[in-house]
Inverse folding.
């Protein structure tokens, strides 16, 4: 349940404050809310966007995320091309009832609008408003700029982005590789496109936990995937993961993989309207493994056909479609995503096609 | 075979680290009982909803009542809708329920087990469960012996090559040391210790598991976790409920055997144990057993000096009048069964020399709560003596249930020109910080048993050592009854318990 502390709504979605008085005004906000509200924070979640039209949606996502993963949220709308330099700020709080209790758990949000040259003050704006000692998660909702501001990237603990929204993934990935190269940044790369694949990877892995299925993993002879138009990169990332795990090489020219003993493993990606990813089918000479996701469903249909055992059908949890669910899934996960870069390396040559 | 091969599944790497259960058939003895409906099936459903169950799993309910698979599934669905921590999705339930069937048999009829063996073989062939069997003793403890014996006679206890056969035993693990040994012998006749999983559901709770993390992953606490800095420890398990229709069982057990022998001593072990050599089951259980062996035995007159037993009288809970224990249905009007126990324990080892552990457990207390409170020693009363201010000791509280979390009490200066010192509390709530619902203890424990991980289960020597300690107290109690104190329902227990801790110049925490 969302309980706005302020009734004033605008970017606005908060109380306008002078940038130099943000901490004091936040303090007042909590003092005025009495004992029934508890401020909680696990991370600093900074969101940078240049899309003003999506600001209301971003606010909703942050409110939803704060309810389940308390944070200090800093939403920054950058408009570097604005003719006049100016910086404005608003504060607000997202409160949720704690179970059946009457107490409310609240997270605070600071929203900035940085126009023109003020957008260059981004690192300072971020650094001066972080909740101390808490990790910094930066969700970058724009194309990565060049050159990168090392001052900012060097402090980021988790860098969140969504490669499925990139128009030029090859170029953007090359920037990502630069950020993550040794000595540049210790930030954990968190591609929401990869996060969405977690449920796919988990379900595929569990298909091969079955003792009768496991041996077929070494004799895969073809792969078919189905994705929505524009989401080929999601299908490729899943393929990259599978290929990386099974030690296959990519033959980019022929768009096939080469397994041990030079066995060719062709793959086919079909783009048809529906969920971002809706099917992966793995065939070996005498077995078939399929994961299917219907439009709007929260569950995969898993099918395993292996010799000597009747077909095994299972329902498994699929990724939730909403952006806040994906973001929450990412924030709940600790550690680095070592296999992400491995998978990315496998498919990079295909991204130029 | 499956476990080793499955752990080498290359697709598993990098995915969330949790137990990977093997395909198996779970056979629940006592499948029509409360435990199955309230805990086991909702836990299994939640695991299915999280995608944590293996692709091939079957659940067989074994009980005496006559009913069809369909009726059994419908009853379980109703229970799951009522007790599951997450809502029931119809499609998922349908898929999950298709793995459930019912097997009617008397517990003492070998034919029922032979038919079960035949049925399980068929299921292995048709469902790919690979011959792995997990038997769950959810029936009354009076049935354990006959079930174990028939499992052995029918050969169900022995797995085929490459498969496994395991048993989960619910508490109580006996009623005293001889009966526990006898039960353990019976289990051991049929199953190896490595195949035996004794459930103490407290160990499956997130906060109980967090004790090890709190202690050994935070330099701040571990450095001070000893007699040099700690004054005493209080472990409390209180509940406002009375005997609630369990008089038959409770009259024979009482609070000492119902709660202290298992849950409270387990919490004490986690609090007092030395760092284990590793996080594997035996390393942790080895350390817990050492704590139990270090407990200073309480025998003879020492029992009456260090242990207080009491029984609730009439009183009020949440504003409602409630009856005295002796007036409850099926309770002997002259019963001397204790519904409250408070005791002072000493762990005689290097780390804890001179640090008493105060334990109290009771029914019909004002509120429900289980917690471990570590009271640190006072600072030297030098610096602030002149101000006349008294300084409260630091207390670290680990709340096991409800409202799982950790709080730390410390002293702070009150704002103002004069020097006034007040206790303040730093509080961490699991629910606040980690908004997602924590899994039920049974989810974790079932998954671990399917995966063969016994870390959160009690080992034979732990159980027997705990009984040995508790039996000595019980034996002393049989010599007299005049020490049984009375307390009003809705109070925090008898005055005698207050006196017990007062001797240490301390007082029970108010929860």
């Amino acid at each position: 349940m969302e309980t706005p502390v302020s009734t004033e709504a605008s970017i606005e979605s908060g109380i306008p404050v002078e940038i130099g008085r943000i901490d004091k005004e936040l303090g007042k906000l909590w003092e005025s809310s009495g004992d029934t509200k508890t401020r909680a924070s696990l991370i600093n979640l900074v969101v940078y966007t240049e899309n003003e039209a999506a600001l209301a949606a971003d606010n909703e996502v942050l409110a939803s995320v704060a309810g389940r993963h308390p944070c200090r949220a800093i939403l920054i709308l950058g408009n570097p091309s604005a003719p006049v330099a100016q910086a404005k700020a608003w504060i607000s709080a997202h409160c949720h009832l704690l179970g059946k209790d009457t107490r409310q758990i609240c997270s605070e949000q600071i929203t900035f609008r940085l126009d023109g040259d003020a957008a260059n003050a981004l690192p300072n704006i971020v650094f001066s408003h972080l909740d101390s000692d808490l990790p910094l998660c930066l969700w970058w909702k724009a194309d990565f700029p060049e050159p990168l501001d090392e001052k900012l990237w060097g402090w980021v603990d988790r860098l969140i982005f969504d490669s499925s929204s990139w128009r030029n993934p090859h170029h953007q990935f090359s920037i990502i590789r630069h950020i993550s190269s040794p000595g540049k940044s210790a930030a954990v790369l968190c591609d929401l496109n990869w996060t969405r694949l977690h449920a796919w990877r988990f379900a595929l892995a569990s298909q091969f936990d079955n003792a009768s299925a496991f041996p077929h993993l070494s004799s895969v002879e073809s792969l078919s995937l189905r994705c929505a138009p524009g989401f080929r990169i999601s299908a490729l990332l899943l393929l990259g993961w599978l290929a990386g795990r099974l030690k296959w090489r990519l033959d980019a020219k022929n768009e096939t993989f080469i397994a041990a003993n030079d066995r060719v493993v062709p793959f086919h990606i079909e783009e048809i309207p529906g969920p971002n990813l809706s099917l992966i089918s793995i065939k070996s000479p005498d077995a078939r493994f399929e994961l299917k996701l219907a439009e709007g469903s929260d569950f995969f249909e898993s099918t395993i056909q292996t010799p000597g055992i009747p077909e095994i059908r299972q329902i498994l949890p699929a990724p939730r479609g909403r952006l806040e669910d994906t973001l929450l899934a990412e924030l709940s996960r600790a550690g680095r995503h070592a296999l992400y870069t491995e998978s990315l390396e496998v498919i990079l040559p295909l991204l130029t096609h | 075979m499956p476990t080793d091969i499955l752990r080498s599944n290359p697709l598993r790497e990098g995915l969330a680290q949790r137990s990977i259960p093997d395909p198996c058939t779970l056979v629940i003895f006592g499948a029509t009982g409360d435990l199955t409906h309230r805990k086991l099936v909702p836990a299994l459903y939640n695991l299915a909803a999280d995608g944590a169950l293996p692709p091939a799993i079957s659940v067989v309910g074994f009980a005496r009542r006559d009913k069809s698979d369909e009726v059994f599934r419908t009853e379980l669905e109703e229970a799951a809708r009522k007790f599951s921590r997450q809502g029931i999705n119809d499609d998922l339930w349908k898929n999950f329920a298709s793995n459930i069937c019912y097997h009617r048999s008397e517990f003492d009829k070998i034919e029922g087990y032979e038919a079960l063996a035949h049925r399980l073989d068929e299921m292995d062939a048709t469902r790919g469960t690979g011959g792995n069997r997990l038997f769950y003793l959810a029936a009354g403890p009076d049935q354990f012996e006959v079930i174990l014996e028939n499992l052995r006679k029918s050969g169900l206890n022995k797995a085929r090559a490459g498969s496994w056969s395991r048993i989960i035993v619910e508490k109580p693990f006996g009623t005293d040391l001889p009966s526990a040994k006898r039960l353990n012998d019976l289990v051991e006749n049929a199953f190896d210790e490595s195949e035996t999983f004794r459930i103490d559901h407290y160990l499956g709770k997130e906060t109980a598991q967090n004790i090890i993390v709190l202690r050994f992953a935070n330099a701040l606490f571990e450095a001070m976790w000893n007699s040099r800095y700690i004054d005493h420890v209080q472990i409390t398990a209180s509940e406002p409920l009375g005997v609630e229709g369990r008089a038959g069982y409770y009259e024979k057990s009482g609070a000492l055997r119902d709660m202290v022998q298992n849950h409270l001593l387990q919490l004490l072990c986690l609090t007092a144990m030395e760092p284990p050599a590793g996080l594997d089951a035996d390393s942790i259980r080895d350390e817990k057993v050492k704590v139990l062996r270090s407990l200073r035995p309480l025998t003879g007159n020492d029992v009456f000096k260090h242990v207080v037993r009491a029984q609730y009288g009439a009183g009020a809970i949440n504003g409602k009048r409630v009856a005295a224990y002796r007036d409850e249905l099926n309770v002997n009007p002259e019963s001397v069964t204790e519904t409250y126990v408070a005791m002072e324990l000493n762990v005689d080892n290097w780390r804890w020399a001179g640090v008493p552990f105060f334990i109290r457990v009771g029914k019909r207390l004002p509120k429900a709560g289980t917690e471990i409170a570590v009271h640190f020693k006072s600072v030297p009363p030098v610096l602030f003596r002149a101000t006349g201010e008294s300084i409260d000791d630091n207390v670290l509280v680990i709340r096991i249930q409800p409202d799982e979390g950790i709080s730390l009490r410390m002293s702070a200066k009150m704002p103002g020109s004069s020097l006034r010192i007040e206790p303040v509390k730093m509080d961490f709530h699991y629910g606040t910080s980690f908004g997602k619902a924590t899994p039920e203890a049974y989810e974790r424990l079932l998954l671990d048993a399917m995966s063969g991980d016994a870390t959160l289960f009690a080992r034979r020597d732990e159980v027997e050592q705990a009984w040995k300690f508790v039996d000595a107290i019980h034996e002393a109690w049989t010599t007299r009854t005049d020490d049984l104190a009375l307390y009003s329902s809705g109070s925090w227990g008898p005055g005698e318990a207050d006196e017990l801790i007062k001797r240490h110049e301390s007082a029970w925490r108010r929860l």
Notes: Residues 204-380+459-502 of chain B form a domain with the Dihydrodipicolinate Reductase; domain 2 fold (CATH 3.30.360.10).
